[in-house]
């Protein structure tokens, strides 16, 4: 049985109408194309004279933040996005999601880069913990990040940002550590023995990071290792070198408290 659409003035099959339980026949009064047009027109009337919320939010983004990196906090956020951030492939959106206990990282991104965008807290799949996430749009920032090799699907191809000023390498690597690194204690040792590790799916990136640390602190480069045979790689430092590196990384910024060696 067909149904009459008063908008386009024709009889159409019932599957050409959206379901609507509020109507006597269970279908929307207009066919799908006409109903979509009707809703757009009604929304346009309600929004007439009001600013577009999407553009208002985009107006709060500091689009040129990474155009010239001169401050430790800029280098830190660059390292954080390089290690744990995400640039979407289909549109110029930047995203960071972390465990809720590390929410401060998302809050720093919000404060520095996109004050108008909200932080969302949500459960992670079927796990018993929550994630904190921020996602915002900025074609300009995406282009600037690409100059420092932060691009879509970067995990396996991440390389060192050669144009990064040498005096900001420690802050950049602090961001890498806070995003995807660790501080642990070797329980097998008779005395307190810290281990600091950087993790990445790109061995080339870690090899360069190891050389940068060696050059800055005059210590031997770390050997590249693997992480649980999961396709990730690591460079690790233990004992006095770990303490030396931690102090150097935190020279200009505090970073995550749980990833800092405090003696």
Explain what the structure shows.
This protein is of the alpha+beta class and about 260 residues long. It has one domain (about 70-260): Endonuclease I-creI (Roll), CATH 3.10.28.10. Helices cover about 35% and strands about 20% of the residues. The protein has helices spanning about 30-45, 55-60, 70-85, 105-115, 140-145, 170-180, 205-215, 240-250; strands at about 1-5, 10-15, 85, 95-100, 120-125, 130-135, 180-185, 195-200, 225, 230-240. The strands form 3 sheets. A 4-stranded antiparallel β-sheet has the order 3-4-6-5. Strands 7-8-10-9 form a 4-stranded antiparallel β-sheet. A hairpin with a 4-residue loop joins strand 9 and strand 10 (about 230-240). The termini are far apart. The model has no long low-confidence stretch (mean pLDDT about 90).
- Give the neighbour order of strands across the main sheet: 3-4-6-5
Number of helices: 8
Mean pLDDT: 92
Give the amount of beta strand, in percent: 15-25%
Q: Tell me the distance between the termini.
A: 80 Å
CATH superfamily: Homing endonucleases
Order of helices and strands: EEHHHEEHEEHHEEHEEH
Poorly predicted residue ranges? none
- The level of helicity is 25-40%
CATH topology: Endonuclease I-creI
- Overall geometry comes to elongated
CATH class: Alpha Beta
**Integer tally of domains:** 1
Find the structural class using helix and strand composition.
alpha+beta
């Amino acid at each position: 049985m067909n149904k009459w659409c008063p908008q386009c003035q024709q009889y159409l099959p019932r599957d050409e109408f959206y379901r609507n339980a509020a109507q006597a026949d269970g279908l929307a009064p207009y066919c799908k194309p006409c109903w979509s047009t009707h809703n757009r027109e009604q929304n346009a009337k309600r929004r007439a004279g009001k600013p577009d919320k999407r553009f208002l939010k985009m107006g709060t983004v500091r689009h040129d933040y990474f155009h010239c990196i001169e401050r430790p906090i800029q280098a830190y956020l660059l390292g954080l996005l390089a290690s744990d951030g995400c640039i979407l492939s289909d549109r110029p959106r930047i995203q960071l999601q972390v465990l809720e206990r590390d929410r401060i990282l998302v809050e720093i991104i919000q404060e520095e880069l996109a004050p108008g965008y909200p932080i969302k807290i949500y459960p992670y799949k079927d796990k018993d913990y929550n994630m904190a996430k921020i996602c915002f749009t900025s074609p300009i920032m995406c282009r600037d990040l690409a100059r420092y090799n932060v691009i879509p699907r970067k995990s396996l191809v991440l390389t060192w940002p050669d144009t990064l000023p040498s005096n900001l390498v420690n802050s950049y690597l602090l961001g890498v550590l806070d995003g995807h690194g660790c501080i642990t204690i070797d329980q097998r040792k008779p005395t307190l023995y810290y281990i600091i590790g950087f993790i990445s799916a790109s061995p080339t990136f870690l090899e360069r990071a190891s050389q940068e640390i060696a050059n800055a602190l005059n210590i031997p480069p770390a050997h590249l290792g693997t992480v649980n045979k999961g396709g990730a790689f690591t460079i690790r430092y233990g004992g006095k070198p770990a303490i030396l590196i931690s102090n150097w990384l935190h020279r200009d910024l505090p970073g995550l408290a749980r990833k800092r060696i405090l003696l």
